[in-house]
Design goal:
Elements lengths: L2 H10 L2 H23 L7 H12 L12 H37 L10 E5 L3 H13 L5 E5 L13 E4 L5 H6 L5 E6 L7 H18 L4 E5 L6 H7 L3 E3 L1 H14 L10 H6 L1 E7 L9 H9 L3 E8 L2 E4 L12 E7 L3
Parallel strand pairs: 1-2, 1-4, 2-3, 4-5, 5-6
Antiparallel strand pairs: 7-10, 8-9, 8-10
Helix pairs in contact: 2-3, 2-4
Keywords: Ion channel, Ion transport, Membrane, Transmembrane, Transmembrane helix, Transport
Main location: membrane
Membrane topology: Multi-pass membrane protein
Length: 334
């Protein structure tokens, strides 16, 4: 490597590494010089470097002390030059650490991982979803994209925050969309329903365009926009309005009223939906027989997907085929 290439490499290196290299050079330089001047006091180069580090950092153990005139002159230059470099290095490291934490809280840093889940939108639904992930899926890596939060305390949440518009490539790339396992797009509560749906659909198009293989769950508020969300590339469309209306209806007309907090919603929040391929031992058995088997494991069989048709609570005597997928409900376990 030529001198010119070495200089270019030096100035292209991050400032913290440059300062570290400068500190190392100064310590080795002064340590070698003092070893050459006073070999009796500093028998090895390492002893000289040790003295240079201790002196330059102003610790001053006193185990090695230059005795000659020129040795003391080297010590003076070391304190003036090396000490300033070490102090500046420590100050730069401290400032860089503070800036890193600030950028992390403000959503300015790019996510570097993969096989993660991207959640778009910070609202009560995503807050609860993140709490459930933290409690029941501790190994899951989550990246939050939101444009409304100016800052979020990263120490209070186990996710990486990216601030920006989820419909823009720059923001999605900062969230490392190309290696994301799943993207959850929630509706913006600050917008009107139709406008919120259009934004969700646009975010779906952007995410699918950058990563065609990622699984996208999209929340849609109006029934008319469901086909557009599917055409945009959403693998699953969740219409929260339908779900909430159904809950309101059943809560209104159920006969037995129980404790206010012991509601259906609370019960469902402690349950996990699972979809599995029918076990080999249950192929050819009836749906009823299969239900009894899973009851032994404290799991509730809700339905199945067979022959391209989804059936919830199918006839008890329905025979399970080899390609069937079972849908069940089980208690979430931490």
């Amino acid at each position: 490597m030529s001198l010119n290439q070495l200089i270019q490499w030096y100035f292209r290196t991050p400032i913290v590494l440059r300062l570290l290299a400068t500190v190392a050079f100064c310590m080795i330089f002064f340590g070698s010089i003092v070893h050459w001047i006073e070999p009796d006091v500093f028998p090895t180069v390492f002893d000289g470097v040790w003295w240079a580090v201790i002196t330059g950092s102003t610790v001053g153990y006193g185990d090695f002390v230059p005795l000659t005139f020129w040795g003391k002159v080297i010590g003076i230059f070391l304190i003036l030059a090396g000490g300033g470099v070490v102090t500046f290095y420590m100050a730069t490291v401290s400032a860089s650490t503070v800036k890193y934490e600030q950028d992390l809280s403000r959503g300015k840093l790019e996510y570097k991982g993969k096989d993660h889940v991207i959640i778009i939108g910070w609202n009560e639904r995503t807050k609860q979803l993140n709490q459930m992930i933290e409690s029941y899926a501790k190994n899951e890596h989550v990246v939050l994209i939101d444009n409304s939060l100016k800052e979020i305390e990263y120490k209070d949440h186990d996710f990486h925050y990216v601030r920006g518009d989820a419909t823009e490539d720059e923001t999605l790339n900062k969230a490392h969309i190309k290696d994301a396992r799943c993207v959850i797009i929630t509706s913006d509560p600050s917008k009107k329903e139709r406008q919120a749906d259009q934004t969700s659909i646009l975010a779906t198009v952007a995410a699918k365009g950058l990563n065609p293989n990622t699984f996208i769950i999209c929340e849609i508020l109006t029934k008319e926009q469901i086909p557009n969300a599917k055409r945009a590339g959403a693998d699953t469309v969740v219409r929260s309005n339908d779900f909430m209306s159904t809950l309101f209806f059943h809560e209104l007309y159920r006969k037995a009223h129980i404790k206010p907090f012991d509601t259906l919603v609370k019960q469902l929040s402690n349950q996990q939906y699972k979809q599995i391929t029918v076990p080999e031992k249950l192929v050819g058995k009836t749906f009823q027989n299969c239900s009894f088997e899973f009851m032994k494991q404290e799991e509730l069989l809700l339905g199945m997907e067979q022959d391209g048709e989804l059936q919830i609570n199918p006839p008890a005597q329905t025979i399970l085929k080899e390609d069937a997928h079972l849908i069940m409900l089980s208690t979430l376990r931490k």
